[in-house]
């Protein structure tokens, strides 16, 4: 991985004082007259181009059409790479271009062209600020790491970097790929990545102009992940404060604008490859350089392979789904056992629940039950906080704040036994009744790990109920975390597996926390874990 190059110390990225090629309009360039060609031999190549690169290719198109040995003309059109990718992957019936120059090779992981050639332009991913700053991916990963830390940082939180939507932007996806690479060697890296997804969803910034275009952005220290060329263009247009773009100290990835061929028609393929040679020539490199691109960029770290691009994109898509979660806390007498100085089992699990709450976005829905035996007449469970979106206000507080407060008020029922089976079945059925297909629907149970309610359903009845009622088209997953030495792992595993869920066994508060964070990250494979 490349570090920060000395020549890229944080300085303003200024528009060139002269010679900037500006073409108004983002439509198509078409050149109809081709001397010396019969009408039946003429070919019109339709080329979809990332919009920011389009103005820099006008001269190349003219040079191509003036060249000898071709009876082709070029029609260039600026098109969002995500839209072309959707079309080429078969998810849309839109028109297919003959050739395509997206902003990144990443897109070819989803929409495979017939040929991928050289890079027409390049631009490294930078962290853009409205004032000089030391660029580091820690600005992006720090808040996510703090959310899963046992010691949350004190003092005011710094600005969260704004990241373009990774499902629509190669810049946003590049930020996730760098995070994935850096977190691969970090303890709880998967949990930090899960927290990062929440931060990205809540702080997306489509453009540098929108992120840095106000006085508040300067005073608040706004940071946005962008391409160096986007920062250049922001400064050239003079919309808002001047931006400073710095390559992160840990290295970065680059947008590489590959020339790809989509058509399989032989004549068009031959013409497209001749066009590629013109686009990769010195004259074109100088044209795009004047727009703020760097065809000779060497800042980018080793690019990820197709498999990694798909894996990270799919992980983001799953983790970005809001969660609908019902959490059950065992408050039976055994939960009063001391597991650390000044901390009993119930308090330890409540603290773990509070930590897990930080990984959920405001549009996730969460409710809390407690269970023991005969909490409400003959019923073993009781609702403490009804399920609702975490961002909803309940009186003067949000649902998130209400749950945080409630978890601190949980108390052990010292004469209570563990009515696990009855409570689990009731929670599973409650989540099925309110199932929401656009969310990940889960029951999470913290327990001492052994049912001892003789008046409730048996293990066989509970297992049969889960197996009969589990619907793979509307999956509700059960996660059971047992705390202590007497967890009945075999029985609990059979119950969880009936819903494609998982059983975890913790013996210390630290282990409980780690296991929960792992469970929260299981959304990557739900419901086929």
Q: How do you describe this structure in short?
A:
This is VWA domain-containing protein. With 529 residues, the protein is α/β, with parallel strands linked by helices. The chain has helices at 58-66, 81-88, 138-148, 170-183, 189-202, 208-212, 215-220, 228-237, 266-279, 282-289, 306-319, 345-357, 399-407, 420-433, 459-469, 489-497, 509-520; strands at 11-12, 28-29, 43-49, 72-78, 99-101, 115-119, 123-129, 223-227, 244-246, 254-255, 258-261, 323-330, 338-340, 343-344, 365-376, 379-389, 393-394, 397-398, 440-447, 476-483, 502-506.
What does this structure look like?
The chain is α/β, with parallel strands linked by helices and 529 residues long. It has three domains: 31-122 and 256-289, Periplasmic binding protein-like II (D-Maltodextrin-Binding Protein, domain 2); 125-246; 321-524, Rossmann fold. The protein contains 17 helices and 21 strands. The strands form five sheets. It has a six-stranded mixed beta sheet, covered by helices on one side. Strands 16-15-12-19-20-21 form a six-stranded mixed beta sheet, with helices on both faces. Strand 13 (338-340) and strand 14 (343-344) form a beta hairpin. Helix 4 crosses helix 11 (306-319), helix 12 (345-357) packs parallel to helix 17 (509-520) and helix 14 (420-433) packs parallel to helix 15. It starts with 10 loop residues before the first strand and ends in a 9-residue tail after the last helix. Residues 1-33 and 152-156 have low confidence and may be disordered. It comes from Actinomadura decatromicini. This is VWA domain-containing protein. InterPro entries: VWF_A (IPR002035), vWFA_dom_sf (IPR036465). Residues 324-524 form the VWFA domain.
